[in-house]
Design goal:
The chain is of the alpha+beta class. It is about 25% helix and about 40% strand. The protein is built from four helices and twelve strands. It has an eight-stranded mixed sheet with strand order 1-10-11-12-7-6-5-4, with helices on one face. A hairpin with a 5-residue loop joins strand 10 and strand 11. It starts with a helix and ends with a strand.
């Protein structure tokens, strides 16, 4: 009888430890990317440093501060319920949600634009090491040429879009910043 109790006790301890390790092992897999609220960073045009915008700002404010784009095109966005326009400024794009008429995303590939998060500028030409303190989980789990930062709603719900930071793996220099198209 004593051996049976001991065997049951060992099995219970093993079961509890297995659940504990499975739970925390799965939790670690979920947190591979840093998470930020989608409108918690700003997009800045170098020639207009006082005109920074967050995702969701009205397209009229973008036009009023950045001027007319060189060109516009409809972007074939999969799985998004609204039509998206790509406004080209030099080599960079600002993406506008045509239904809601708001800034939706961007593609920055040169020094004419940059982003600011928590008072830290992130620019094409910067070394990716600046991201290690800003987005530690994403930096630690970076790909060969990409660091992805998960975007959430203000309620903490994950969005499909990510803030993507592209870099040259031979120099670790940032070559692009994007939400949307590469």
């Amino acid at each position: 009888m004593q051996q049976l109790k001991l065997k049951i006790m060992k099995s219970a301890i093993f079961f509890i430890l297995a659940i504990f390790f499975l739970h925390y092992g799965c939790q670690a897999q979920v947190d591979l990317a840093s998470k930020i609220v989608y409108n918690s960073f700003e997009i800045v045009k170098n020639q207009s440093p006082n005109s920074s915008f967050s995702i969701g700002v009205s397209k009229s404010i973008v036009l009023g501060n950045y001027g007319n784009p060189l060109s516009t095109e409809i972007m074939p966005w999969d799985d998004y319920p609204s039509e998206i326009s790509g406004w080209k400024y030099g080599n960079n794009y600002i993406y506008i949600d045509n239904e809601r008429e708001v800034l939706f995303g961007f593609k920055i590939v040169d020094s004419n634009f940059y982003i600011i998060y928590n008072d830290q500028s992130i620019k094409v030409g910067d070394n990716i090491s600046i991201l290690s303190n800003i987005f530690p989980a994403s930096y630690q789990n970076k790909y060969d040429d990409l660091i992805s930062i998960e975007l959430t709603t203000t309620n903490g719900e994950a969005l499909d879009e990510m803030l993507e930071v592209y870099y040259d793996p031979s120099s670790n220099i940032i070559t692009g910043l994007s939400i949307g198209y590469r």
